[in-house]
Amino acid sequence: MTDLADSPAVRRLADWDHGRLEGLADEYDTPLYVMDLDRVKENYTRFAAAFPDAEVMYAAKAHTGKAVLEAVLEAGADIECAAWGELQRSIDAGADPNTLQYTAVNPPDHDLDYAADLAEEAPGLTITIGATDTLDRLAERGYDGRIAIRINPGIGTGHHEKVATGADAKFGIPYERVPEVADRVREEFELVGLHAHAGSGVLTEGLEEHCRAIERVGEMARRVGDDELEFVDVGGGYGVPYREDEEPLDLERTAEMVREAAGELEATLKLEPGRYVVADAGLILSEVNTIKEAPDATVVGVDASLATLIRPAMFGSYHPMLNVSAPDRDSHPVTVGGPVCTSADVFAHDRPVARPERGDILAIGNAGSYGYELASQFHSQPRPAEVALENGQSRVVRRRESLEDVTRVEQ
Ligand SMILES: *Cc1c(COP(=O)(O)O)cnc(C)c1O
């Protein structure tokens, strides 16, 4: 067995076995999500190895499929959840509820009912609060267990303003109010940690800003007494290169900078990457159904759409694309779009791709994080199947939806 911690820092579309991908499209139909669980485990293990004395959790919302949760648990991760359904799915995948962390952001009543009930059987559950209202509401439910305080460090980072949470008033207790909230938590609950999650998609150039947020969290931990805390959780947000010419994060350098920013701490450092663990382990296979020569573009129609992967429409995200049927053909700038009737349903504009022909299979890369999780049934499109790769085998881990799945809840 290879040393997982020595695995490459990035897997690009060119590194996949293109013949195998074509075979999967043929066997399981398109559009198809493919998740390589071996790569998921490698990514977790490599990340955790860079932070040897920290605790590295997996943030479930990046990909909450059962097979992925089982894979990260097997790799030794605990799981961070941001909603009651994620808690339940983690338990269903085999997580010990005593190891779960629930980050409550404007939690609906049902989420708090669920978490308070769960804590009765599993007192190890940790609830992270970002508003004192959540403390009142937990107290009303008889909860007096483990609490971490989410801090608003006043600094946000990330690939897009919609994911920069660190300075957004929606997230966390305002910095200067943290000591008084800590006092209250110590009186009525068990204060176990401080938490901050400043943003998402941080690569080398965003790292310094990201670390300034971590510095603030470390300072606050010392102010409220880091020797009385179990952990200081600096969140996730570690990015992956979406563009072929972007460099991956240098994990060793990142770990050094994070450590230095957090400063001397008696408490255990915790991190909770989501995207980093799953992004490059997943891709979408999509079949070309239309080639149209328009005066200003060659339009390539595919069967995946913004209902399959919404990141380009929602965040303007770049996803790499490769013609796995004929990677060696001359490349040609094309505009690739799906069957949804909006101009936002475009994966790429004027992108050089090995000249696609009808029936070719295009792979859309880095779709393992916030991909299937954000898929919808827009345009009455049943959601695609998902196939997992593990130990050289493939298996369906989410079957393709049927139209009955789309209409099942109608009365
Ligand atoms: C979304 C989220 C994460 C993971 O973020 P990534 O950018 O996927 O690493 C971690 N912690 C919290 C609280 C989150 O909401």
TrEMBL record:
CC cofactor: pyridoxal 5'-phosphate
One Pfam family linked to the record: Orn_Arg_deC_N
Any one biological process term the GO annotation gives: lysine biosynthetic process via diaminopimelate
GO-annotated molecular function: diaminopimelate decarboxylase activity; pyridoxal phosphate binding
Superkingdom as given in the UniProt entry: Archaea
Residues involved in pyridoxal 5'-phosphate binding: 237, 272-275, 370
Span list, region Disordered: 383-411
Record's compositionally biased regions (Basic and acidic residues): 399-411
Positions of post-translational N6-(pyridoxal phosphate)lysine modification: 61
Pathway assignment: Amino-acid biosynthesis; L-lysine biosynthesis via DAP pathway; L-lysine from DL-2,6-diaminopimelate: step 1/1
Alphabetized Gene3D superfamilies for the sequence: Alanine racemase (3.20.20.10), Lyase, Ornithine Decarboxylase, Chain A, domain 1 (2.40.37.10)
Catalysed transformations (reactions): meso-2,6-diaminopimelate + H(+) = L-lysine + CO2
PANTHER family: DIAMINOPIMELATE DECARBOXYLASE, GROUP IV DECARBOXYLASE
Annotated function: Specifically catalyzes the decarboxylation of meso-diaminopimelate (meso-DAP) to L-lysine.
Record note on quaternary structure: Homodimer.
NCBIfam families in the record: lysA (TIGR01048)
Protein name: Diaminopimelate decarboxylase
Organism of origin: Natronococcus jeotgali DSM 18795
